[in-house]
Design goal:
- The structure holds two protein chains of two kinds.
- Chain A is about 55% helix and about 0% strand.
- Chain A has four helices and no strands.
- Chain A is rod-shaped.
- By secondary structure, chain B is mainly beta.
- Chain B starts with a helix and ends in a 6-residue tail after the last strand.
- Classes of the chains: A mainly alpha, B mainly beta.
- Chains A and B meet through helix 1, helix 2, helix 3 and helix 4 of A and helix 1, strand 3, helix 3, strand 6 and strand 8 of B.
Chain lengths: ~120, ~230
Amino acid sequence: MNARPRSHRSSRPVLAAAAFLLLASAALWLATGREGFTRWPNSKLAASDRPAGAADDLLSSLGFEEGPDDAEPTLVNKFAFGLLPGGFDARHLPSVLLGAGVSGVLFATVALRAMSNRHTQGGTP
Amino acid sequence: MNFAAALFLGLVTVLAAPAEPDRVPDTLPKEPLVPAELAGKGTVYHTLAGREAQVVFTSKAPLENIVGKSNRVVGYAVAGQGDHPEALAGAKWILPVRTLATGIPLRDEHMFADEWLDAEDFPQITFSLKRVENLRPVKQGEGFTTWDADLVGDMTLHGVTRELRVPDARMSFLEASASTKSIAEGDLLFIKCAYTVKLSDFGVHHKDVPGKVADEITLSQMLRLSNTLPTE
């Protein structure tokens, strides 16, 4: 006789998926720089970065030398999985918040199902 | 259907969806017209836009540093008369607010919202040069002269106009040559400067200042201009 209820067996994959999602979100956040917002490389921003080469040589000859304090602030232009969505489009929605939210829904689903099963079993004469 | 499988498929669909079209438009804003009385005072130089970054702004706050840029500044500068082009007769530059980009679309939209720069009501940031002060030569050579000067003008941001002094701006006038053709046609004018503006001076007040966004924003600019109107 199988003593373990079917509900326990069917909730394991859901719990595993929830745990995996939460851990994967956190790991991706840590691995991509612990940024606040999800971001992706932007080709237009990259193109507007000042190119080195002939133009810089010309400017340098004119007296536009770069001192130690003159370095242009750099714009981060890379992929980062953030704590929060970086926008409302499909690419920027994935984030730790979304991962944690979905995990929470899965855990809550399992918990509610377990509570419901316990209630049903308790009501059985 | 198994909920986990449905969730996995949903995530794959989201991540595989087409990317959002780039928010910054390809078309350049229109250069402001040079007033007739100003155009007659000297050579008009037109700002070259749409290429390298022209303005980079930095906000350094305790909780977050923000860097953004734009390469869509348009405008003109009118050189001084005769042998003194460095004594600019006038200039005007326009920066469309919505061309500023920080690399995070959500943050950019916050920046354009009415509690910040309010791009809907005040779509442009403008600087109109009134006078050039404290001119001093830096370097001179074959076909070029470079000067440092303080540029004084009116900056309009968020609907508020205030006089702004841009100290130690560096300007260089360069005659057309084989080396300048790689940048643009015609005689060139380069203007490089750095200055700060306070958001509160221009009516921008927010609870996130100064914790997440600094009140004092640093701007660094590198403008390239040509006396030949760009064809693009």
